[in-house]
Structures are given as C-alpha cells and as structure tokens.
Amino acid sequence: MMIAVLICPAAFYDTLIVEGWCLGAMALSAEQLALPVNALDLKTDAATWRDYQNQQLQQWYQPLWPLFQSMLYLQAPDWTTICRWRQQQEDVLWRLRATGMDAATLQQFMLPFQRVDRSHAARADLVRSSAASTE
C-alpha cells in the first residue's frame, strides 16, 4: 500500500493523506513488461492489457507524483498476504452489505495489480516492511 502526503495550501490542510493501488506506480520498460508475473500474463491478449495499463501510468498517473511531498510504501511480506488482506476487506463487505466479490472473482480482479504493486518501492521516499502477515 502506498501512502502519500500532498503539498497543499496550509489554509486548508496541514497534511492530506492519500492511499491507492496505483499511487506511486511507475510505467515499466518494454523489457519489464515482457516478463510474465502471473497467469494473466500468459493469456493471448495479455500484452494489450499490459501496454494499456503502462500507457495510463505514464500519461495520467506519473505526472501527479511530483505534487506529493513524500511517499511511504507499506510493503506486505508477499503477494499472497496482499490477496489475503483484500479478501478480508471483501469479507467485511459481505457481512455489512451482503454483497462483494466471491473468491474466484476476487482472484481475477487482483491479477492486474500484481505488476503494479511491484513498482511501488522504486518511487517511495520511505519503505516500511510488514514483518508478519495479518491473519
């Protein structure tokens, strides 16, 4: 998870904390994009999605990063832990709203974010690793 502090007029905020999947993510080189990271990358149309995702990061997201005073990356122990944490969020949605993604849908939903997650640490001003997964 990437957290950032946005430079903003002091008249409005002292600190604004922003969190998001793609916050701080950087576009990758063609060589990096060519390396598969999961089952999604092995599908025949995977390159189309990877190229689109990369183009969006470069065109729309990266120009925003200089607006942030600093970025902190809270690094999970591994991708499995990230998926488990996201499943816990879905479990709460099911309990509170009786709606959410089932396990199979969530697994498909998570695949495109695995590549993005790997690029966060490179942009972060500070990386903090989680020593243990949250059960």
Description:
The protein is α+β, with helices and mostly antiparallel strands. The protein has 5 helices and 4 strands; from the N terminus they run E-E-H-H-E-H-H-H-E. A 4-stranded mixed beta sheet has the order 2-1-3-4. Helix 3 crosses helix 4. It is globular and about 50 Å long.
Short descriptors:
single chain; 135 residues; alpha+beta; 5 helices; 4 strands
Mean pLDDT: 85
Strand order of the biggest β-sheet: 2-1-3-4
Secondary structure category:
alpha+beta
Oligomer: single chain
The helical percent reads 40-55%
Separation, N- and C-terminal Cα atoms: 17 Å
Computed CA radius of gyration, to the nearest angstrom: 16 Å
- How much β-strand is present in the residues? 15-25%
**Which stretches are low in confidence, meaning pLDDT under 50 for 5 or more residues running?**
none
Instruction: Count the E strands.
Output: 4
